[in-house]
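User: I'm preparing a small set of examples for a lab meeting where we compare how different chains pack in three dimensions. I only have the primary sequence for this one, and I'd like the structure in token form so I can line it up with the others. Please keep the answer compact; I'll paste it straight into my notes.
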Amino acid sequence: MFKEKILGSIYTGFFEEFFIRPGLSEKEPYEIDLRTKFSRNIILEIPISSSPMDTVSGYEMAVAIALLGGIGVVHRNMSIEEQMSIIKKVKEAPPIRTREIFLTHDQRCQNAVEYMRRNEVRDLPVLKGSTVVGRARYIDLEKECVNNDPVEKYVREPVKITLKQIRDAKRIIMEGGFDTIAVTDDHDNYLGTIVYKDLFQENSPSLDEEGRLIVGAAVSPFDKERILKIDKYADVIVTDVAHFHNRNVINATKMITKEISKDLVIGNLATEEAVRDVVSEIDKIDGFRVGLGGGSICITPEVTGVYMPTLYAVAEVRDAVDKLNMNVPVIADGGIRSSADIMRALAAGASSVMLGYMLAGTEEASAPKIRVGGSVYKPYRGMASISAIELRYAVDRYSRRTKQVAEGIEGLVPYKGSVFKIVQEIIEALKAGFGYAGASNIEELWRKTVFIRTKPRDFRDIIQKI
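Assistant: Understood. Below is the structure token output for the 466-residue chain.
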């Protein structure tokens, strides 16, 4: 019997072994529709979410990903109050890209000139405290700054809008010939600066029915207090468990489903059996987060010997969902390192992907910059690493230490710049991939995909040619 277990083992393969057979393209890349569902009621403009890791998904990442058309899932390695504060702040953020670039009233004009050069703008709002008191023009400062006086000496009338006027931003900037415009709340407090060149990006933000950015929140199924409080503000709740196919986890989730109003994404799970078992026990399931051990900094396979490659797990879970006639999205989570991997995951049945490694190291990732020699890095760690676990137990009294071994590692990743640039490149690559595959949207990709599998030697030959 045991010999048969070895001889009859399932070959699953890895992302890099699979490619998609090309097909007849009816549309150009710019016509591809990447809209999808993250959960039963959450619609995304692009099939991307940020992983709830404490070195990736905080306030800045959640706002940026929503502005790009995806959704950020705020990590839970913090107190309930901190997580609620971040979620509220995301919901209050302008539904348009803003940057925190401005001058202060007492800033010296020579410094202001250099600051404006670095940011490539001809004007900027001027702040006194949190209040916009005017705007300064580069041409004025450059011509008249002789004695290095404070900026307030050269201030002109402010150009600003409130959140209610966001739709008018492009018109105001174009008609006035401005490079920037300040955004304030109803109490005249500064919220950010809109830069003209950001208004010409083609992305549509992911918004709720009231026109606010959407945001998700990671929770432990055992933390009922957190779940009930978060449910009032987040758009979707995402269970954050390495192995959801666990009797205690299922029972805990079952108990809270009747008390929440928002969509519930459960996970992680990776098999058909897991889908059948959770569906038989839990009435409310609005999405499946799929993957086990596949993350770039997850060492579960090396530590425990248990693993399910993400691509195969997505396909197996998707088949199980379809067999049960469930119209529930599948989210591929773990081991996705390139736009090609995203394409493969979508083709295998995923509705969207959850990214950690690809977003780590960006300006918006929730980790500080660290300079090593002449290079800049950001920390990146698995949520089952020792330091992440210790922090979680320190801030979350409901965390249960059921394991005494780390299943994640930590390290540094090179600083990558803005996540806006990274995701834009991913989107363009996906649209090109859809074009080659002959698919105009995700559902058509599911229907048309024919996978080809390469031998490891063949794949090495491909890499050598690049």
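A couple of notes for your slides: The first strand starts at residue 18 and ends at 20. Residues 457-466 have pLDDT under 50 and may be disordered.

User: Perfect, thanks.
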